[in-house]
Every structure is written in C-alpha cells, then in structure tokens.
Amino acid sequence: MNESSHQPQSSHETPKPTRFEASNTLFSATANDDTSAQTNSVQPMTILRRRWKLMLTVWLAVAIPLVTFVWLHFESEYESVGVIRVAPYIPRILFRDEDSGLLPLYGAFVTTQIQLITNPTVLTQALQTPEVKNLPWTVSVPDPVAYLAEKLEVTNPPNTELINLSMQGRDPKGLAPIVNAVLKAYMEAVVEEDQQDDRAKLDLLYRKQSDLETDLKNRHNELYEMANIFGTASLGSRQDTAFECLQELQIQLRKAQVTRVTAQARLETLKSRPVPSATTNELEQLEQEQLDTDQELASLIQAKVRADQDYADLSQQFGSQHPNLASLQHKREDLQARIHQRQRAIAKSVQILAIQKAQKMIHDELREVEERLAEAAQTEKALQKVVDEELDKITHMGRNAVQLEALREKAEQSKQLYDAVLQRIQHIEVERQRPARVTIASQAREPKYAARDKRPKLTVVSIMGALFLATLLGIFMDSHDTSVHCENDVQRHLGIPVLGKRSLTDHLGSLKHADDASIAEEIRSLRGSVLFANGSNGYCSVLVTSPNPKEGKTRMAGELAQTLAESGRKVLLIDADNRKQDLTKQFGHENQPGLAGLLANGSDLTGLLQPTNTNGLVFLPSGPYCEMFSELLVRPGTLERIRRSFNDYDHVIIDSPPALLSNESGIWARHMDATILVLRADRSTREEATAAKTCLTQMGGRIIGAILNGIDPRNLHYRQCYKRQYEVTLNQS
After folding, report:
1. For residue 412, is it within any domain?
2. Is residue 201 part of a domain?
3. Element (DSSP H or E) covering residue 292
4. What predicted TM-score, i.e. pTM, was given to this entire model?
5. How many domains does the chain have?
6. DSSP letter string over 80-100?
7. Whether residue 418 sits in one domain with residue 299
8. Domain range spanning residue 187?
9. Are 258 and 372 in contact (CB under 8 A)?
10. Each residue's pLDDT tens digit, 283-315
11. For residues 487 and 721, is the Cβ–Cβ distance under 8 A?
C-alpha cells in the first residue's frame, strides 16, 4: 500500500472528490429535489404513519368520555301535532265559481282562529276532559291554564290553509290527549250549522225535467222507426267500412296502373335497344371455357409436349449433330402452327356464340315483358269496374246518413238539456250537506320517535372534535420531533448518502451464524458500499464513529470488519475508544496491552494484535485506560507511524469515541481514508448528526456516508421511505 496515499491533507487544500462521492452528491441533490415539495409542506400521511398510536390514544381518550356524557345528560323531546284546516271560502261542493262563497279578509280570520284556540275558555274546557284531568302535571302545576297556554304552540305555515296545534315534552304518552282535547273544545265553540233551503229551485227544476223527459221519448221513437227502414241505427260504421274498402281498391288500382306503365315502357326500351355486345371479360371467360374443353386442342398440346420432351432428350444425349433432331424440330413447328390455328378458330366461334346468346336473352326478355303488360292491363280494367261500383254505393249511403244524423242531433239536444237539469238538481241536493269552513284535518297521535334529539349531532361533534384535537397533537409532536427516521432524512438534512442500513438485533455474532438472513444481507450490502465506494480499490482505512454513545457504532465496526474478513481479505480491527473499550470487552481482552501502549511507547504492533474466530481478522485492543490518550494521538509522527503499519492489511477498521463527546474522532478522521457516521434511527437527532458531520469535516475528515442503525423493517414509515428512495434510484438509472 502506497504510504503517500495516506498522508494527511492540508487544512487549506480542498480534497478532490472520488467517483463514489461525486455520484452520491448527484444522488443526494436529485433526492433533495424530488422531496423538496414534501419538505416545505405538511405531510398528513407521513404524520399519520409516525404518530398514529398517539393520535388514536388521544382520540379514544377524548371521544369516549364526551360521547358518554352526551348520551347520559341529554334526553329526547317528543312532539304531538294536530292540524286544523281553515278554508278561504264558505265551502261549496258542486256550485260554479259565481256561487263559491269567497270571503274577504282571510288572513284576519285565520289570526282570529289562532287567538280563539288559546282562549282561556277553550283551554279550561279542554282541561275538564277525563283524559287530561288525570295527568300528573295538572295537579302539580299551580295554574294549569297558564301552563297549557305556554306549552301549546299554535302556528299557521305560510301559503297554507292549515293551523298546526303542537305540544312538546319528554313524556310521549301525555301529549296526544292534551292536543286532542283542545281540538275538540275549539270545534265545539266555533262550528255552527248554517245551511240555505233550496227547495224553490228544486221545484222549478223538477217540472222542467218532466217536460224534457217526454220530448226525449218522442225523439227516440222516431229514431227507432228510421233504423228499421235502413236496417241499422248507425250508418257511420258502414260508411267507414265502405270508405276503407274504396281506399284499398284505389291503392290496388294505382299499383296496377304503375305496373302496366312500367311494363309498357320496358317493352318499348327493349324494342329500340340494339343487340349488346359482350364485354372483353365475358369474351375472355367464354373463350377460356372453350379452350379448356376442346379435345382437339388438348391432343395437339399433348403431342407438342411429347415432341418437346423427345427433342430435349436427344439434344442432351447426342448433341446437336443427331440426324433425328431436324425432323423433330420440323414436327414441333408444325404442331405449334396447328395449335395457333385451332386457337384462332375457337376465338372466332366464341364471338359468334356470344352474339347468339345475347340475341336469345333479348328475345326471352321481350316475351316476358309482353306477358306482364297484358296481365297488368287486364287487372287494371277489373279494378276500375269494382271502384266505380263502390262509389255508387257510398253515394247512396251518404243520403240516408244525412237524414238519420239530423234526427239524432235533435234527440241529442233534448238529452243534453235533460242531463243539465238533472245535474243541477243533484248539485243542489249535495250542497245542502256541505261541510263547515273550519274542520279538523288530523288528530294528534302518540309520537313514536323523538322530534328533537340532539344526541346524534352532539356525538358527531364530539368525535370530530376529538379527532381534530388528536390531529393537532400529532402535528405538534411531529413538528417538534428532530430525530432521524429514514434515509430521506439523512440525505435531505446532512447531504451525505446512506451506505447501508442495520435492522434491530440483540447480539454481535458471526455472519455465518446470523439468526436472520435479512440482517446478513444488510451487512453484506454495507461491505459492498465500502469496497466499491472508491472505484474498484475501495478504502483501506475506515473510521467508524457516531454523534453520541449507544448509537451502534461499535457493533457496526465489528460487523463490517467480520464481513470484510469473511470475503477473503486481511482486516485489522482497532478499538480506539479508550474510555469505554466496548470492542475490547466483547472480544474478551480487557487489561491487555493494546493501542494505548502503541501510542505511548511505540510498542511493536505485531505483538499487540489478538487473533479472532474469523479467518483473516486480527484485533488490536484499546489497552488499559490512559488519561493522556488524546495527547498521545496529537503527538507529532504518532499516527503517521501507525499508518505505516497498515500496509500489511487490505482494510483497517477503527472504532472511535462519539464525535460530539471527544475530539479523538476528528483526529483519527484526519488521518483515515474515509469516515463513516453511524446514526440510530428514531434516536439520533438531525442537529446532533449535523454537528458531528461539521466537527469531522472541519478536522479534515472525509465522510463517505452514513449507516442508519436500528431500523425496524416492520415499521410502515420505514417502508414508505425505502420505497421513495428506491424510486429515486430507478429514476436516476
């Protein structure tokens, strides 16, 4: 390993970012852009995922007492209603508008009736009824009349003829008897009988009815006599039937005329049309049919084919000098000429055949059209005769219908006058029994359901209020929570990538014996991030630290060293936390010489190393506690000398004290190739993580990323953050 590559950088020099750092910077910027809209606004779903337990507890704690209080301290009120109808006129049953009895000052009349209902006389009479007298409140109240007048509500709904008489109370059984008693007392006080005697009108109408009845009988006798003469009492149906029959005959006649004219026109067209010539396609088709069926042509073609085959065989076997080739050639030419001659003869015969076929078609069509023309003319003549006969019949029937209709109209007039007189008599008889102007539209009934129950509305208000309070508390708690929850928080607030995640576990064991395969995969993923963070070479010396204690840096350092060694590399693990010495205790090397002695007196590194159960991994304990440990670190040349001993190893992993509690982490970070910041999910705060990053970078450390420790994969918020991070990665790729 080149020593010059591990020299500390000057504080005024800006180190060039590696390829891994450049790509992660771009990744962080993209992730920040993608989530900036979510950061600047309240995220209700995020708050709900984080604080749902608190919000549910607060909601139940507030809603249950409120709902219980509502249903225990509020009671339902019932209402019983009776309805009175006040007609705007003296009610008539069947009289016309001029006799409607419309009365002026209808509004004043209704107001008077409302005052009369609450009159003490009416209320006193209502209180004397047996149903009301036995009610408990009539005895307990000092003035029952005043109490009833106060509780009774009398209203006139706008644009109606009704007066509503209602009473409310908590006892549904005692309401209807009171309202019905008041209705009964009111009706007995105001309803009076006032009917007119219409006897004079009825006598006059009865006499007129008798005269009209006699006249109507005479008209009916005349109609009966004419019906016997004509054979029916009504000629209308016969006329309708005759007209329908005539219309049908006329339609058939017009169709026959159209058929005749069409046939005649077609006949003239056919006679004047020349013989059509066959089309090219038809001639070709007909010619092809003749060619395909001609036996002589087929035999010539077969002979030609055999001659061609013989000629080809002789030419192939003996060449062009064979004496029979000339005779075969002459035979082929002769057959070819005969074939052409036969084809021309067939073509000429096809033309003649096409002309004959066209002439036959025209002759057949002329004969068919002439037959249709003769048939159409005969049909037209027969229909014309029938139509003339029907016209004569309808004319005679019309004269008889006029006489019968005149007599029927006279009888109908007498019947209408008789019906009008009879209807007037019936109207007067009915009007004598007309109802009063004021009537009871409906009696009061015992209410089955509460009219005004505030409890459902108050229950909804209580539930919604408790939900609103729980939501406010969740928002308040989430807005004051500065802890790191997921990868998005690290990238958004610290600007560094997350190299790996570590789920919750209770032990530090070998990767080969990991209880959970997912945990082993997380450690392998972290190993890959460290190996390939600096191109294909990776980082040699890596410092693992955290902002505060109990955030998992020691475990991360041990697991990272184990997994690197298990991949076939030579790894040195150093416990640089001289105060706690967690790694030293876990490996069981307390009070043994180690790093403290190496810093103090320059001991040989090889003699201080301790073997481990993992092949390729050696461990340098922290050594006994040393109060001057920090001073030894900054002694000139000390860390440079230790770094030279790193050349024997592929990787060196150093576990240092927390960055916010000791400056030793910054000193180590300045001389290491890379620094990894370990954060505990839901425990490490953003302010502490930022302060640790600032402290390390100001000391010259190179932070290549963070490890998010203590992740609970079952947590919904973690899964949502992981999903968003995965989508951002896919968009970049």
Report:
1. yes
2. no
3. helix 280-293
4. 0.45
5. 3
6. EEEEEEE-SB---SS--GGGS
7. yes
8. 78-195+436-442
9. no
10. 677 777 777 777 887 888 888 888 888 778 777
11. yes
